[in-house]
Structure formats: structure tokens, C-alpha cells
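Query protein
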Amino acid sequence: MTENLIRRRALRIEQNPSIPLYLFALEAGEVDRVADVARISRDEAGKLLGYQRPEKKHHVKQILDYLDGEDVLFPNGLILALPSSVRFKGSRGPNTTDGLATIGTIEIPLPDSDDAPRPALIVDGQQRSLALARTKRSKLPITVAGFVAEDLEVQRDQFLRVNTVSPLPSNLVSELLPEVNTKLPTRLSARKLPSALVNALNQDSDSPFKGLIKQASTTGDRKSEAVVKDNSLISAIEESLSPSGVLFPYKNLSNGTTDTAAMRDILVVYWTAVRDTFPEAWGLSPAKSRLMHGVGIRSMGRLMDRIMDRVLLSAEVGSKDAYDKAMAELELVKPHCHWTKGRWPELNIPWNDLQNTPRHISTLSNVLIRIYLQSRMSAS
């Protein structure tokens, strides 16, 4: 090992010819010199950065306590995304490969200073890596699987795939999915479009939800403004993408295309009308407004399918006319809603007793839809 280079014996695994994969070992104290954690965040323009969840201090402490204890066996390796500047030199002589793996030496360049970015990023094992950086056993050998990929999309794809046994936080998965364009498992693939629409609603300047949706990248002062949980809105959109939903016709099942722009416009028109119909309940914390609560978002999402289905019979998607008609339809239910005070007489419960449970979501949805349909019949 030289001053700016770590050299280790390694196996090159013959798995994917376009993405080199290596197995090797690092000392515990070397991990922090080689690899960094790409925390999930957004820049000022709203572009998603990184993919890792925040540090879990209790989890890190548990690992550290074990590492600093007696009789340590630590087979839990790390998965790193390596830079293209790494070099692998196969060993000379006979029997250096069996067709599955090749014996050799990997060379990983190190940064010139402590402030410079580390060459690799941790795809799996960030809590372990934090503990390894602090353990007194700095010479403890740690197993590493490293694949060469500087493309953030490939790293995010692998990050989502390797974290399936111990599930990732749902909001972290939801925010990362729209950034991954590789083929995903069916379960994740189904969530990709709703997640992309929620990202747009949280970022677009004409969206009533701009800055109000709580996502994995929501930090600092933005946390106090973010009052809507992304999973509630994602679930509402997923239902609207079903065959009975208003968004379903914008999926072309024959050729696999999706009119995402039209879907976004429908959501913006409807929820802008909701905001303007209930201004006193909009933008408050769920404790102060059940409209911003999961039960309100899900129930109003089901009402959207009824209202926007009617609106779009005579108005263009995203038009001022569509907004005006949505406002008129929402006026039919407005007198019966109690988002911030009073009781729901049809449910016989106070406004703040509504909870984000399947029973309350179903009951409130049925009440809103019944009131809407009865009011529409009376008005016609």
C-alpha cells in the first residue's frame, strides 16, 4: 500500500461484462478513507441527490458495542460502488481462474486530502460502516463486494434491490423510484408512476402541494412546512390508476405508454380546487386539519374520481374551465365537511377522531361520495 493507494488481493467475479464486480477485504479503519455515504437530499433546483437514509444512532451504537467486545466475528460485509479509476491486475500463472472468478490484485486510489471526496460510495452497510469508522479494532478485516459504477442510477437500482430483506422506509423508496430507469420487480414497478407524480406535485410551482409533502429528502426548515405524508398521496393516486379511477384512461395498455403530463394536470386542477374550497383547512398540520391527514387525503382522492370524471366530460385537462367546474362540484360537499372543528353528523364523531385506518377511510369516503351524488341529483 502506498500513501494514496490501497492495494488488496481480490477476486474478479465474472458476472456482468459491463459492470466489473470484485470481492476483497479492507481494514475497518480503511473503510472511512475509501467510501462515503450518499445521503438523500435535494438541491436548490429540486434535483434529487444521493439515496441513503439518515444515520440510525442506536443501531450504530449496537454494532460498535459488538465490534469493541470480545470474540468478534463480523461476516456482514459492505457493498460499495467503486470509481472507474480502480485497477485490477490478474495474477500470473496457471489456474488463476475457474470461469467464475479470477484471482488478482485491486488498486483503489485515495483522495489527496481528508476534505476531498472519497472514491467509493456505500450502497449497502452504511450503519455498519459508521461503526467500523469508530471501532478500536481499526485493523479488523472487513469483507467488501465492490462493483464499478459511477452512474447514480445504477447505484440507486442496486440500493433498492439489496434492501429488500430489511425493508427501507417507504418514503425513501418512493422518492428514489422515479430516478431508476432499469427494469424493477413488479411490486416496485407499480409504485414508480404514483411516486413520480407525487414528486412532481411537491416540486412544481403550480401545484397546491408544493413544499407540503413530507419526503425522505425533506430536511431543515422544510420539515415544518411539510404536513402531508407522501404515502397517503401515493396510495390515493394508486387507487385512481385502477380501472375505475379517473387517471386510468391515460395509461395505454396496448403500447405501454403513459400520459404522465395529463395525469399531473388532473391532480393539480382537482387539488387546487380542494385547496381553494377549504382554504381554512389547507396547509395545516394533520393535528389541526383532517384534510391534510391521511384519512382526508385518501377520502378526497376517492371523491376526485367521481368529480373529475364528470368535469372532464366537458372540459379540457388542465384548463381554467376544468378548475371552475371542479370548484362547482366541490361546493356540493363543502357544507357537510368538518375538517378543523365540529362533528361529522353522518359519522357521529368529532372531526379530530377521524384516523388514518382502513375503516375510517372507507367510511368517510362513502359519506363524501354519497353526499356528492345526492347533492348532484337534487341540483339537476
Q: What stands out?
A: The radius of gyration is 26 Å. The chain has a mean pLDDT of 86.
